[in-house]
Amino acid sequence: MKILTTIQMRQLEQSCAQIGLPADVLMENAGKAVAEEVRQILGNIDQRHILFLIGPGNNGGDGLVAARHLHDWGARVTIYLLGQRAADDPELKPIRQRRITRVEALKDEDLDKLGGFLTSADAVIDALFGTGTARPFSGHLLMVLDKVNRARKKRLRLRIIALDLPSGLNANSGAVDPGCLYADNTITLGFPKPGLFKFPGVERVGKLTVVDIGMPEYLAEDVATEYITGEWVKSVLPRRPLQANKGDFGRVLVVAGSINYIGAAYLACSGALRVGAGLVTLATAIRLQSILASKLTEVTYLPLPESRPALISPEAAKLIPQQFDRYNVLLLGCGLGQSQSAIKFIRSILIGRHKQALPSLVLDADALNTLANTPGWWKQLTTDAILTPHPGEMARLAGMTVEEVQSDREGMAKKWAAEWNKTIVLKGAYTVIASPQGQARISPIANPGLASAGTGDVLTGAIAGLVAQGLSLFDAAACGVYLHGEAGEMVKARLGDAGMIATDLLPELPQVIKRLKEN
């Protein structure tokens, strides 16, 4: 699903009009879709009190359509009008005909009526401005929003639902007006907008749902940024024929682990296995093999010589290229550490002169840190590769600050993917995946439970496992990010977002795949 800026949305609306989908039809579709989603959120809506904050523009019109449908389905609806709507407004006329309670905010000077509505409301629908916010909130409008915020703090059961996006959130940049409400749910129309995935805006969005309002997707096919959906992931998941053998599902060579980071090797290998890789081989220091063998019983091993206890010797780099033609993908970096021997080892593999061509690469952690300290590394490493940095690693690779990276995550990922000719997975809330060709995909997941040691190793392993099964680097990266994120959501639903550990994700990965295939 494409992610569209406000300009792109306007262009799409114009294109819809040209093919016989005028604005009034889209508004009717949008209002009904929002009403149906509100019914899903609230459950039984019979006689439940829903307060609509209605603005003067199209967002308000969408809200009036939704209000009409919810009233017809049995809800007790109240309309609170902020700003003038035309006397002959076609969306307001059915509200009058149904005698739905409506109040003009400017006539409620002391906000007493609003206060009364808020004491009994089950939900507040923010249909004020959507993408049309043009200036800072002030005056009576700011007082209304403050009143709603205060009511929400007093009554935690009061649900705030934003229509398209919380009013005051910039649809493109994610910047927010101080008066912007903290929504529990945001129901965005047709296509998601970039600002919904950028800080500080994401903190106001709550749970995001995208509803279909009838805009044909082919009209947006030239847009380069996409939102990863389960439907798309299902379409690219590797097929598993009944007559298959392990060789059909690819071979992953994982080079990982050191005395201080033994678990990283376990998590990366397990991630690859749990998404269906046929064979995983762990190349690690010989002393670590005996520790990991009792825990990683399904992998094969390539013991590597040590320079010091449980640190891979630079001489081991001579052994790795001999294995290249046996594997579909090389995963390098998890837990190798930044000792001088590890750095020499990593550099020898990635930018050394080998007779054998490198397989596809998935690089994480210490492989990235080594590259960051290698001037012009991308000119020397010309093989296809997926880089999986967190913001700190990305900052070191790009020679920037973390704040600069985080200020425009999508832009930074696209810029450096093109510059380095590599696929970038910029981890974090709403992980961004960027291709060298300028495409980007954004994860639908922001889960603080995933902010713990080792979860990145699981992700890297999952991505490598999907590359081994034949997915392109860009597809494997996006698919792996989605599966990893959904596994985190399943753990969060069971345990909460505090105390989630990386190993909790492993049994959930095949469950996510199973659920996608069954649906």
Secondary-structure blueprint of this entry?
Elements: H1 6-18, H2 23-42, E1 49-54, H3 58-72, E2 76-81, H4 93-97, E3 101-104, H5 112-120, E4 123-127, H6 139-154, E5 159-163, E6 185-189, H7 202-205, E7 207-211, E8 225-227, H8 230-236, E9 251-255, H9 262-274, E10 279-285, H10 286-292, E11 300-304, E12 306-308, E13 311-312, E14 329-332, H11 340-351, E15 360-363, H12 366-372, H13 377-380, E16 385-387, H14 391-398, H15 402-407, H16 409-420, E17 423-426, E18 432-434, E19 440-442, H17 455-468, H18 473-495, H19 502-505, H20 508-518
Parallel strand pairs: 1-2, 1-4, 2-3, 4-5, 5-6, 6-7, 8-19, 9-10, 9-14, 10-11, 14-15, 15-16, 16-17
Antiparallel strand pairs: 12-13, 17-18, 18-19
Protein architecture, described:
The protein has 519 residues and is an alpha/beta fold. It folds into two domains: 218 residues, Rossmann fold (3-Layer(aba) Sandwich); 269 residues, UDP-N-acetylmuramoyl-L-alanine:D-glutamate ligase (3-Layer(aba) Sandwich), CATH 3.40.1190.
Quick tags:
single chain, 519 residues, alpha/beta, Rossmann fold, UDP-N-acetylmuramoyl-L-alanine:D-glutamate ligase, 2 domains, ten-stranded mixed β-sheet, seven-stranded parallel β-sheet, 20 helices, 16% strand
Ranges with pLDDT <50 over ≥5 residues?
none
Count of beta strands? 19
Q: Report on the biggest sheet.
A: 10 strands, mixed
Q: Largest beta sheet: what is the strand line-up? A: 8-19-18-17-16-15-14-9-10-11
Structural class: alpha/beta
- Discrete helix count: 20
Name the overall outline: elongated
Total of domains: 2
CATH fold naming of the largest domain: UDP-N-acetylmuramoyl-L-alanine:D-glutamate ligase
End-to-end gap: 18 Å
What percent of residues adopt helix (DSSP H or I)?
40-55%
